[in-house]
Each structure stands twice: as C-alpha cells, then as structure tokens.
User: Which sequence fits this backbone?
DNA sequence: GACCTTTACCCCCATTTGGGGGGATACCAT
DNA sequence: ATGGTATCCCCCCAAATGGGGGTAAAGGTC
C-alpha cells in the first residue's frame, strides 16, 4: 500500500447499522474506522482523540440533530468532511446539512461499493449526492440568484426602508427618519418581504448585505 | 489664480442663514456658491445641474431630515463631500450624519474663516469637527471594538443561538434545532443583547457578521 | 382613456419579540 | 466552601412584528 488509509468516524444511534458500517469500512482496503459514536453529543466530545478525516453522520439522531452536529463539528474542525446518512431523500434536512457544512450524503440502502465510493469522494473534496438532490441544490442557487435580482426590482421607497432595516433600525425609527407614518413603513416592508421571499427583517437585512 | 474654485452648494431652510452663507462663500477667493436649496427634497432633485464639490447641509431641515438627505445624496453621488451645519453640538444627530456619509460638520456660530476652512478641509478629504465630537467618534469606535471583542466573550450556547439568529431563524426554530425550550433560547438571546449592546436580533446579526 | 406602478395611509388580529423579574442545577476555581 | 459562570427553565407584560385585507391619489405608458 504505502498510502495512508482514510480515517473514518461514524455517528449513528442504531447499533446494528453502526456496527455493520464499522465492519464494512474496517474491512475495506484504504479505509479505517477510527471511532463510532451513538449520539451527536458523544461525537462532539470525543472526536478529537481519533482525528477522523471523514465523518459519516446519521441525519436523524436522538438528542442533538445530525444537522446541528454538523454545524458544531464544522466550527470545531473545518477540515473534516462529513457525509450525511439518510434513509430516504429527505431533501429539506439534507439541504440544511449541506448549508451547515456537510459535503454530501448517502442513503442507508446504498451498496457497499456506493458507501465506500461516497466516503472516498468527499475525502477527495467531492460532493456525493443523488441527481435529484443535486438538482434541488442547483434550484436553490437559482432561487438565491433570483432573489439577488429581487433586490433590484424594489421601488425607491422599498429600497430606502430596506437600507434602514439592514442597519438595525425599528419601523418607528425608519418612519421618523423618512418622515412617514409607521404604518406606511410596514406597508413597504411587506412589499420587500414578498419580493425577496423572506419572512422577517433579519432575513431581509442578510439578503440585502449579500 | 489658475486654480478651480471649490463648487459649493448650500441646503438650509432659514433664508437669512442661507443667503449669508451664500454671500460669504461667493465672495471668498477659491470658493464658488453654485446652488442654494431650501429643503432636502429640492437638493436631491436639483443638485445634478450644478455639480457641487461640497454640500453644506443643515442638519435640522423641515420635511426630509438633513441626515436622511445625506444618505440619499451619498448614494446618488458618492464623491460629493458633505459638511453638516448645526446650531449646537448635537452629538447624536451629527453621529448619524457621519454614519450616513457626511465628512464633518461646522457650527452656525463659526467665524467666516472657520467656515471656509471647514469647506476647504472636506474638499481635501479631511474631516472637520470639534474635539468634543471627535472624541465621541473615537469612543464609538472603541465601543464597536469592544463589542467585536464582545462576540468573543459569549458563552458556547450564546454563540450557538447567535449563529442561528444571523441566519434568520426565529426563536422557535432555534429551540427546535438545538433541542431547547423557546424560553431558554430567549434567555440566551437576552444575554447576547446585553453583551453586544444591541436591542434587536437584526442588530445582533449585523454585528455577528462584522 | 385604460392600465400599471408607486406612493402613502388605514384596519384587524395573532404571534413574536424584548425587558423585567425569578428560579434550579452544575462545574470550576480560589 | 463560596463565589463565579454557564446551562436550562419559568413568569408577566407591553411593544413590535408579520400577514391579511383595504383606500386613494399621482405618475407613467400603451
């Protein structure tokens, strides 16, 4: 060999699934299972001792969710690559996980080769996912692109209000600054929300500041 | 001479003050008064025809405020330098004006030389202001600096909550993501507000994202 | 003239937020 | 052991926010 194995850790609450995976990875050439955790909390506490390259993370964990565990793990160790484990194409949660820093995902029903390929792919910096989810991701980028353009078809007044929002002003303060009634400011704000497809001033402020 | 005069515009609702200023500037060597406006609205509509280098803007205008006029003027013409005109050291509004893009300010009771010096100074890229306000500005930077450090002495949980806030989540959503009660999230949020010296989630999100 | 957008304001109503209090553990350091 | 900090939860209450309606005048544009 001469090559270092990919050091893999597993976070999965189901003992059966966890041990199957660990065995599968441990047996494969070029892979090493350096840790198994039965909860996100355990993983967040104990991962440093084994320094995994890749973490295979169940998306559906008791206690702390897989998505939240990804967020925290990535903030502790940005270089670790994470593959989410799911039973079905749960696009919403996979989405959140990708947003939080996961690199890809694999289905529990995947073949042995599929699983090892996915781990190897994230380790190379790839992003293993089904074409269905890949399309969802692309659609989301389009949505983001569209909403960036959304900022451009706001009216003058709507932009004025949004600029104040992005500086943390309240409606009352904006009304005073622009010499309008607070109700009017609210009216423009509603238009901004609907055009930017957001539901709160904070989301609007974030989008406005790119 | 051979040198171009500094083209000055005045925005001031008091006719007496406006005409005194216009006369003073028009008479001075190296200065030219290219326009006078009696309101912010008028200035925003008509400034392009006269292309001023420097705008002297009353901070206290009827209708649109001087501060708001600064914001809009600077977004229309970022290269124009603006000096605020105030009766007294109204630190709060001067502050807002500087935040919106004004370069400095001068007091209405200033001497002729003081006024011309201030205009010349902003034109050179300077920032004329009293030492009192200058100290306020410095203090504000300290406050900002301190609050940037403030982010660092948030506890783990407080940081968790703030991170979700900066992604536009509601308290309820954060509670669900972190497996906490919504009341608990509120509790952490209160701590975040007091440590960052902000009063709303949007302000907190802005500070968190630098 | 008919149409659209923009500006500006109003109503109701449920939910969320923010400010002010509490508590109860637990752990850590002096 | 005693104080400090962090974690987690609860109460009350006023204000702000967001979603759903609506009106009316002013300005383009086709």
Assistant:
């Amino acid at each position: 060999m001469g090559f270092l194995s990919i050091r893999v850790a597993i976070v999965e609450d189901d003992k059966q699934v966890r041990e199957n995976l660990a065995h599968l990875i441990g047996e494969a050439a070029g892979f090493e299972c350096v840790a198994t955790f039965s909860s996100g909390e355990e993983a967040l506490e104990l991962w440093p001792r084994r320094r995994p390259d890749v973490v295979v993370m169940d998306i559906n964990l008791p206690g702390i969710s897989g998505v939240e565990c990804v967020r925290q793990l990535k903030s502790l160790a940005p270089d670790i690559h994470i593959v989410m484990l799911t039973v079905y194409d749960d696009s919403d949660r996979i989405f959140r996980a990708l947003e939080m820093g996961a690199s890809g995902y694999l289905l529990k029903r995947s073949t042995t080769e599929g699983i090892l390929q996915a781990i190897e792919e994230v380790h190379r910096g790839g992003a293993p996912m089904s074409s269905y989810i890949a399309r969802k991701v692309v659609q989301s980028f389009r949505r983001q692109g569209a909403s960036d353009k959304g900022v451009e078809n706001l009216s003058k007044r709507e932009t004025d209000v949004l600029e104040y929002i992005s500086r943390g002003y309240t409606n009352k303060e904006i009304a005073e600054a622009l010499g309008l009634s607070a109700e009017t400011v609210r009216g423009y704000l509603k238009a901004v929300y609907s055009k930017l497809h957001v539901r709160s001033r904070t989301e609007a402020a974030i989008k406005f500041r790119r």
